[in-house]
Amino acid sequence: MNNKKIIIVVSNAEERTRIKRILNNSPFVVLDFTDSMGAIQWIMENGNPQLLILEESSSPLNGWQTMDYLRTELKMEHPTLIVIDSDTEITNKKLQGFIRKPFSDKTALEIENFLNTVELKDKNEELVKSYSTDYLEELSEGSKEFVAETLVLFKESVSGRLNDLKIALEQNNFDEARKIAHSIKPSFQMVLNQHGRDLCQSMETAKKEEELNTLFSELNQEFQLIETQITADYQLDIN
Amino acid sequence: MKKKILVIEDNPMVVKSLEFKLTKEGYEVTTAIDGRSAMEELETNSFDLILTDLMLPFVSGSQLIEHIKKNYPTIPIIVLSTATQEDIITDAFNMGVDDFISKPFSPNELTLRVKRSLGASKKNIHS
Q1: Per the confidence metrics, is the pTM higher than 0.80?
Q2: What confidence tier does A94 reach under pLDDT thresholds 50, 70, 90?
Q3: What is the pLDDT of residues A33-51, one digit of tens each?
Q4: Is A159 on the interface with B (CB under 8 A)?
Q5: CA dihedral for B17, B22, B28, B30, sign (positive or negative)
Q6: Domains identified in chain A, total number
Q7: Considering the domain boundaries, does residue A40 fall inside one?
Q8: Percentage of chain B with pLDDT > 70?
Q9: What is the CATH number of the domain that holds B64?
Q10: Cβ contact B16–A153 (<8 Å)
Q11: Staple A168 to which of A12, A79, A173, B37, CB 3.0 to 4.6 Å?
Q12: H-helix or E-strand containing A29?
């Protein structure tokens, strides 16, 4: 359960009590330390907490030094918030996030938002790539322009054909649906999406109406996944 | 003079890829997205090679091949197919197509097969 802990390093007892009280209703166990060395010691012995909240002016190592020490010396990466005074200007590029004193109910919201952002980022990084440009690069001998244009074409053409496919299914025109699936199969193959290719293949040979509808729904989801990733990777906007 | 190739295919990604690769190889490429417009192209232009899909809108691949073989018997045809169309490919060969390439095509394979078909066609004309 180490990953459900928040470590706080705040030297002033009153401020420490206040932030602990604010986080009292959170789903985390809050461990507080008066100095950075105590926090480092705890992490070395117990592993990664979910979040580190380090006072910028902590001692013996200040907030930045503590963060650097954990990352570079101990090779431990944690989501880290630096606590700064209300009038401190933020210029440090290494800053992941910060909260300002004095602590208030707003602080809890800031911490929650920060953790949500970190979680979302982690999830995105964990997502397996649903497409690859390897084939298009090989074909075009590395033409970035060709790859980008073809990805736009993938989004536009497959989206349109999926719409046709939906209409064909709604009209019980299953032969047409199978033809469309056949026609878009190479598009999924060209972006090296095996799942999309397999779904098209299954649609071509599916005999039952319900089967076709289920396969279509899955194919549509797969397409949307690829589309989202292409848009994120290439900042493409076809609308 | 550049060799002229007619590509008949309804998947725009495949069309774009073929167009890109063949143009880069020095060929002049014309595209048609269905059998009907392919027939119109054949009526107004001359081609050295045809690359065609078998499942096309309006006019089927078989009908199209039959039309080409009857009206333009010297133009070699390479069929663009998917790996699961064995029966259709066999039928196409029986109708006289020269070769086939699986979609999505291997770039090197495309180059070789196009060269081979164009070479064979030249030989046939001279013999």
Answers
A1: no
A2: low
A3: 999 998 988 888 887 788 8
A4: no
A5: negative
A6: 2
A7: yes
A8: 91
A9: 3.40.50.2300
A10: yes
A11: A173
A12: strand A29-33
Q: Which domain holds residue A49?
A: 2-126
Please report the pLDDT score of residue B94 as a whole number: 87
Collect all residues from B whose CB is shorter than 8 A from any CB in A.
10-14, 16-17, 20-21, 24, 55, 82, 84, 103-104, 107
Interchain CB contacts (distance < 8 Å): A and B: 48
Percent of chain A with pLDDT over 90: 44
Test B17 with A190 for CB contact under 8 angstroms: yes
CA dihedral A175, A178, A179, A184 (to 10 degrees): 160
Query: Using omega within 30 degrees of 0 as the cis cutoff, is the peptide bond preceding B104 cis?
Result: yes
Domain residue limits at B16? 4-126
Phi, psi of B91 (to 5 degrees): -60, -40
Q: Are residues A168 and A228 in the same domain?
A: yes
What ipTM did this prediction achieve?
Answer: 0.88
* Residue A199 belongs to domain with CATH number: 1.20.120.160
DSSP one-letter string for B82-116 = -TT-HHHHHHHHHTT--EEEESSPPHHHHHHHHHH
Residues A131 and A192: beta-carbon distance below 8 Å: yes
Q: What residues contact residue A88 under an 8 Å CB cut-off, 6+ apart?
A: A56, A100
Instruction: Show residues of chain A in contact with B84, CB under 8 Å.
Output: 201, 204
Tell me the angle at which helices A174-190 and B12-24 cross, rounded to the nearest 10 degrees: 40
Residue B93 banded pLDDT, cuts 50, 70, 90 = confident
Query: Is a pLDDT exceeding 60 seen at residue A3?
Result: no
pLDDT at A206 over 70: yes
How much is the average pLDDT of A1-27? 83
> Chain A closest CA to B22's CA: distance in Å?
11
Q: How far apart are CA B118 and CA A108, in angstroms?
A: 73
